[in-house]
What we know:
Layout: E1 20-26, H1 30-41, E2 46-49, H2 79-95, E3 98-101, E4 104-111, E5 130-137, E6 145-157, H3 179-189
Parallel strand pairs: 1-2, 1-6, 2-3
Antiparallel strand pairs: 4-5, 5-6
Helix pairs in contact: 1-2
Amino acid sequence: MTTSPSEHGTPPGSARDEPLRDLAVVGAGPAGLAAAVTAAGLGLDVTLLDAGERPGGQYYRHPAPGLRAARPQALHHHWHVFARLERRLRAHTATGRLRHLPGHHVWTVLPEHPTETPQPAPAPAPAPVWRLHAVADEGTGAGGESPVTVRARTVLLATGAYERQLPFPGWTLPGVVGAGGAQAMLKSGLVLPGRRTVVA
């Protein structure tokens, strides 16, 4: 009988064998990236997980590699801030202080041992150890994924923001896009949503 990594009695070779990290950061956008490199700089062992293949999140979204963009920094405000964070990420990764896991989709975070307070409680409960369960893209192009578990004493969620599109008359017409959609078209595909723009 096999058990899910989220169930108790996890067999050897899965979650229990993962090294315990001081901090796990979910999201490698501006906030998560800054948090991860700052914590690593302070001496913590950090794991940074992100669904994207490159750090930066939606704000510092990168053009598709096949487009061979000559100057991707021209698409962004404050690119120098991102470049500095990315250099620190590479430096901490090289020393082993920070483990960067791109292409990892975190789907749940659970305490390793659920807290049950006996009556009466003899002492304060110990700080929980968290298990982050993710699926990792295998990069084969065939949709292959593999399960990954990360164990950490502390979890920081930096999952960013998303555009909430509110319906209005005409919102599904061709050429009508949200600000986030227009940004994604420009930064990822180097495509202008139009030559004349009305912002409403």
